[in-house]
Amino acid sequence: MKFTDLGIIEPILKALKDEGYTHPTPIQEQSIPILLNRKDLLGCAQTGTGKTAAFTIPILQHLFNSRNDHKGHRKIRSLIVTPTRELAIQISENITAYGKYTGIKNTVIFGGVKQRAQTDALRRGVDILVATPGRLLDLISQGYINLKDVKYFVLDEADQMLDMGFIHDIKKIIAKLPVKRQSLFFSATMPSAIIDLSSKILGNYQKVTIKPKQATAEKVEQAIYFVSKPNKTKLLIHIIEANPEASILVFSRTKHGADKIVRVLNKAHIKAAAIHGNKSQGARQRALGNFKKGELHILIATDIAARGIDVEELSLVINFDLPNIPETYVHRIGRTGRAKASGIALSFCNAEEKAYLKDIQKLINQQIPVISEHPFISDGIEDAPIPKSTSKNQQKKPKRHSNHTSKNSQQNRRVSSKRRRY
Ligand code: AMP
Question: Which of 92, 211, 245, 348 could be stapled to 130 by a disulfide with Cβ–Cβ 3.0 to 4.6 Å?
């Protein structure tokens, strides 16, 4: 099935094409027709399945089709509530990308930062508001937000909301919504409290269940290098030089970090380019095109920019930084091992990132083998205590500082680099 078969309007199809999406993911294939039909939806799915597009595309389409009904100042006609700031930002960026030819405006609000920029954006008027619960209630109580015009409501990652103690906030938010609305409810798991909550939110709903793509993680050969932050670029150069023919996609958490990696590689006479949100669309497409044609071997990407990258011959993915959202790791490594039976994903982990590694291993239910022999081995990182982190999962349940990992278990998963070509 193609996107064109789903009854999606031209301005959105055009944006999806720009993103490089050709075929809908299973959740999109199943949910988009239900949502375009204005039915409520209970989605049992997690991040990484393509669910953001599954719910934002129909909302954009409804809002676009009824744009002339609302002359004058824009009113919030769609509210998307999500537990974490990272997810909220990601959803907002997706809406901006998918809706860029529709004229539909969105903004994102979350706590932990000054509210001024957010209230300014609200004052200018938005059609879609993406919010974390605390800041949303706060700005409602200050009079900056009114939910009376909301027609499309999404509650995303509901089980995480529950874990993070947001349930009362959610109930307060729901009480402020108009009764007549279309509601979408997503949760990766369905404990009884979530089923109970869904019955409060949804009317006569349809259900879509998508299993996480855990299989990808099993297909890809993975390894971890414990390495200090300053030594990461040296290790990267070492791996690139050991694999002169490989097409390598390197993930950087930040745009600035991606540019820095390119500079260091270029200085070492290694041709590389970065793609991220600050690069022009033309520059991004050029770099990606050259990478796909095999003219450029090394591409550095941020997670957002890497969306839609589908390279047949990608042999190696390197996580220069470990992502703080474990699902992102699964998504990143899923970039390799597509055309061929297996791919290779290597991750660099410094002392501060050990908490992320722990979350990732929990999610994929695997211990990732450690390359314990490499030229930039940093003493002590492997056995250092896991630091407190602010990752999504850390917010969910505050984790205790772990003790030193047992030497034996570490030993068991050590892999000699001599056996590997990287
Ligand atoms: P999500 O589950 O919404 O976080 O999406 C996971 C990733 O898949 C994101 O990086 C999206 O940009 C990407 N994605 C979503 N839909 C598609 C599609 N139909 N084709 C290719 N990539 C997609």
Answer: 92
* Cα 315 to Cα 403: distance, rounded to the nearest angstrom: 36
Ligand 1 closest atom vs CA 45: 2
Q: Is the pTM of this model over 0.70?
A: no
Q: Are 124 and 117 in contact (CB under 8 A)?
A: no
Compute the distance between CA of residue 126 and CA of residue 105 in angstroms, rounded to an integer: 5
Percentage above 70 pLDDT, the chain: 84
Task: State whether the beta carbon of 358 lies less than 6 angstroms from ligand 1.
Answer: no
Residue closest via CA to ligand 1's atom 22 equals 308
Residue nearest to atom 1 of ligand 1 (CA): 50
CB 323 less than 6 A from any atom of ligand 1 = no
Residue 308 CB–ligand 1 contact under 6 Å: yes
| CB 153 near ligand 1, within 6 Å | no
More confident residue, 377 or 43: 43
The C-alpha atoms of residue 96 and residue 39 are separated, in whole angstroms, by 24
Name the pLDDT band for 339 (thresholds 50, 70, 90): very low
User: Would you say 79 and 145 are in contact if contact means Cβ atoms under 8 Å apart?
Assistant: no
**C-beta 78 within 6 A of ligand 1:** no
- Measure Cα distances from 215 to 34, 323, 364, 366 in Å: 27, 19, 9, 12
Listed in order, the ranges of the chain carrying CATH 3.40.50.300 are 3-209, 216-419
Ligand 1 pocket member 47 (CB < 6 A): yes
Ligand 1 centroid vs 16 CA: distance in angstroms? 10
Residue closest to 174 by CA, chosen among 161, 164, 183: 183
Looking at CATH, the fold of the domain delimited by 216-419 is given as Rossmann fold (3.40.50)
**Closest atom of ligand 1 to CA, residue 94:** 12
Q: Is the CB of 56 inside a 6 Å radius of any atom of ligand 1?
A: no
| Residue 24 near ligand 1, beta carbon < 6 Å | yes
CATH, domain range 3-209: 3.40.50.300
